[in-house]
Amino acid sequence: MNVRYNDVLGSLRAAYDGSAERRDGSGKTAWKLAEREGFLSRLQRHEYKRLLEIGAGTGQDSAYFQENGMEVVAVDLSPAMVALCREKGLDARVMDFLSLDFAPASFDAVYALNCLLHVPNSDLPAVLAEIHRLLRPGGLFFLGVYGGGNLTGEGLFEGDDHQPPRFFSFRSDEELQEYARRSFQIVDFHAVGSDELRFQSLTLRRSK
Description:
The protein is an alpha/beta fold. It has helices at about 5-25, 30-45, 60-65, 80-85, 125-135, 175-180; strands at about 50-55, 70-75, 90-95, 105-115, 135-145, 155, 165-170, 185-190, 200-205.
């Protein structure tokens, strides 16, 4: 079965609408804070200012970037998540990854933490091409997802703590980097953790 993003969009929206308040109350692990800080440092070295966060969730990361001098726009497919972003004083909008309604080269940077793992492989190239379109030449893109190691394959995640259960697409390190190279130059790749919490961190650049 060839799963498409539009096939899973409705259930993902329902799952995140239903978990928004709970997720807003949860803290972040030290390694996630370090990944976020590392990306901000890159942006500051380049004097980049305008950042788009896709799959922004409750806006914790967007708020961090905004508090550190970035001009931030946050988007998420969940209206409940976007409402929580707006409560934090963010410019937040309801959009999905294939309907990012911004002009070409609108942003210096894009940040995507643990959201593109909900995009089936069949639509990942189109989503990455859309992000490429929104970035200025030379712009930076942080792509972070769980995957690699023993996390492989596509489908509903058994034992998911969200209702309805969410769709995930886990890719090997090689697969993820191959997708990325179709649209971007890889600046950095590294993995954090192991087993079900193995995280793949990529910093990418739009080269043209």
